[in-house]
Design brief:
Strand content: 5-15%
Oligomer: single chain
Order of helices and strands: HHEEEHEH
Structural class: alpha+beta
Shape: elongated
Distance between the termini: 53 Å
CATH topology of one domain: Trna Endonuclease, Chain: A, domain 1
Helix content: 40-55%
Length: 144
């Protein structure tokens, strides 16, 4: 028993399937700066969070397009032990906060939440260390 009544129905199915694939291939392209930010900060931050025990849970906004969360939203929200939360905006060394991001950061400050701007993994590690994570067994790169 065939799913298709005839050859033309099958060909139509193949045409639609191929059209769907071509849409998937046309993903938004990242700028070189965003690619560098993702490689140098986003990926290592996610790896760090996943290496901890218990794992540091996080929400990450996409960087290859304006945030799907809300315009101007910071890149990471980290949930640390002891009911602590870190809001982090990642920037390249010479990266600037957009107008939308500046507005978001200001509104978060009005709610008494700080959005930390991090430009290197060293800054990220110092920020997490400053928060103190006594309930986390820290596992650094290269160790299990």
């Amino acid at each position: 028993m065939s799913l298709f009544k005839n050859e033309s129905e099958y060909q139509e199915f193949l045409r639609r399937k191929q059209a769907g694939r071509s849409r998937d291939v046309e993903k938004p392209s990242c700028s070189v700066g965003v690619e560098r930010e993702i490689k140098d900060l986003h990926e290592p931050i996610m790896a760090y969070c996943n290496r901890q025990w218990p794992r540091i849970k996080y929400i990450r906004a996409r960087s290859d397009m304006p945030s799907g969360i809300t315009v101007g939203c910071h890149d990471f929200t980290l949930f640390l032990p002891g009911n602590r939360t870190l809001c982090i905006e990642c920037k390249k060394k010479d990266g600037k906060v957009s107008v939308e991001q500046a507005g978001w950061i200001k509104e978060m400050a009005m709610l008494e939440h700080i959005v930390h701007i991090v430009r290197s993994m060293e800054e990220f590690y110092a920020l997490v260390e400053k928060q103190g994570t006594p309930d986390i067994h820290k596992v650094e790169p290269g160790h299990q």
